[in-house]
Design a protein that fits this description.
Layout (H helix, E strand, L loop, with lengths): L6 H13 L4 H11 L3 H13 L10 H13 L11 H26 L1
Helix pairs in contact: 1-2, 1-4
């Protein structure tokens, strides 16, 4: 399984993907890169979902290529939030303890 490593290898594939000009081999290379890491998948989904790159024949190819390269070099890749069951459970226990102490204090001060 060949995974493109450099941005100069993957950016043209992304551009061809949006133009629907990928060959079968290029499609496999792009998919291998996309699914090789969560960051790559999220990056590619963000391009697709947010319509960062809208390829149309009136757009400048070099400008689009530069946008893709800039995004690939961007240090910030937003990963989807993860659900931490343990963290939520700890917070719920803490809220319950505080509530019990507040109720006990209220009952003691009420007398």
């Amino acid at each position: 399984m060949y995974i493109p490593e450099s941005t100069h290898e993957i950016a043209p594939l992304i551009l061809k993907y949006f133009r629907e000009e990928l060959t079968a081999e290029e499609g496999h290379r792009l998919d291998n890169w996309r699914f090789s890491s969560e960051a790559n998948r999220v990056f590619f989904d963000n391009i697709s979902n947010e319509k960062i790159v809208r390829v149309d024949y009136e757009f400048d190819e070099e400008g689009i290529f530069e946008k893709i390269i800039d995004k690939l070099h961007s240090p910030e890749v937003l990963l989807p939030p993860t659900f931490h069951r343990q963290r939520i459970f700890k917070h719920l226990v803490l809220i319950l303890i505080i509530t019990i102490f507040a109720l006990a204090a209220w009952l003691l001060l009420r007398k």
